[in-house]
Amino acid sequence: MLLQRFYDDTLAQASYLIGCAATGQALVVDPNRDLDPYLAAADAEELRITHVTETHIHADFVSGARELAHRAGARLHLSDEGGPDWTYGFAREAGAVLMKDGHTFMVGNIRIAARHTPGHTPEHMTFLVTDTPATDVPMGALTGDFLFVGDVGRPDLLERAAGFEGTMERGARQLFQSLQAFRRLPDHLQIWPGHGAGSACGKALGAVPSSTLGYEKIANWALRIDDEDAFVREVLAGQPEPPRYFAEMKRINRDGPRLLGAPRRPDRVPLARLAELVRSGAFVVDTRAAADFAAGHLAGTINVPLNRAFTTWAGWLVPYTRDFYLIVDHARAHAVDEVVRDLALIGLDRIGGFVALDAPELAAWRAAGGRIETITQITPDELRGRLAAGDVAVIDVRGRFEWESGRLPGAPNIPLGYLADRAAEVPATGTVVLQCETGSRSAIAASLLQARGRRDVANLVGGITAWRKAGLPVERPAPEAAVVP
Length: 485
Fold this sequence. Notes:
Elements: E1 2-8, E2 13-20, E3 25-29, H1 36-44, E4 48-53, H2 65-72, E5 75-79, E6 97-99, E7 104-107, E8 110-116, E9 125-131, E10 140-144, H3 157-160, H4 168-182, E11 190-193, E12 211-212, H5 213-219, H6 228-236, H7 245-255, H8 271-279, E13 283-286, H9 290-295, E14 297-298, E15 302-303, H10 310-317, E16 324-329, H11 335-345, E17 351-357, H12 359-367, E18 372-373, E19 376-378, H13 380-389, E20 392-396, H14 400-404, E21 431-435, H15 440-451, E22 457-460, H16 463-469
Parallel strand pairs: 3-4, 4-5, 5-6, 10-11, 13-15, 13-16, 16-17, 19-22, 20-21, 21-22
Antiparallel strand pairs: 1-2, 2-3, 7-8, 8-9, 9-10, 11-12, 14-18
């Protein structure tokens, strides 16, 4: 038996290839839309991908299962445990095998047993893996978003992200029951989860790539709670705001992702043409570093820097319903391929074109009368003085639970992902200072307000972390004062 783990840093997402060396057959579990790594790995091991499956209908990325099965000529296996709301709409068209609890299939000499583990989602499956030439006892479990290293999948996404009212507590209770049943399996069972640290599918995921059930019984908070009501309270407490695009991912993955084919590089457009498009209302994302964007950028554009958080904030802020355009750093013009790939992972395929921008081109555009804007950077000491003078207002764009843990005195909370919808809550006059933990999210927030026509915005350099280091006061609001988005 061969096992290979693939990990996408931008999604904090793991997928797996399991191969039988004796027969040359292979299974891929939870593939994302970037198929080349799976195909290349199978080829390197002289395997044929004959089976493709996924643990559940994903919320944080577009599944590649349908497309991989199509390209590899493999059989698709999908859960049939979700009920009418969470049945795969494309299963019949794709010729998929629909699985109930207890369903098994063979990948060469490797037995895969599907175990229904609802809670994170109603249809969720965990796959027990048995290398039958060696033993009849499962060696490991592909747990998807059911059981992580140090955490469990959050049960609130269907309600908070996809709008299915009344599912949050029910999901939490299902998750508790799933865990109680799962913990009866042998302690030696290896745990291969679908996400690592940084994923929004849980609140405290570990960075270690795998674990064992025995260790998780000792170290995982969720397996140490025996009271169902206590578990429900704990698993629902402190969950971060689910990105808005999760609802779109659920719909796409349930109804069937379109077959994308190889990603195509968008056309390059002149800066002058892009400026015309902005004036006509086009949505433009500048992926350069926040400092470069703040020093000078095309008016009307927003800044989502190309880093590990890029896909998350692009999914929050970029529209799915119309074309949009990109700006990349000229020195990293090749990065447009990375951007296209990362956006395709979350279903943002409507890229109308891109500009590879450098400082001389920006300066020439400014000299020719083109409109260039900057974003003021303000230090904690400067902000303290201006707050004392009463000529600025601070908006904290962190998540609600971060805000509850301590904030600048009097700073209201509007999480970045909700800022566009709640722009009416931003003071209409005076300078608005955006603040987060370290200054990265607030830089995006400042660009968003500026692109919507607000000129007097500033970013707190270093965020509340720098504010604390400067010895400036922090207050903790009462829990009942928390603002729920």
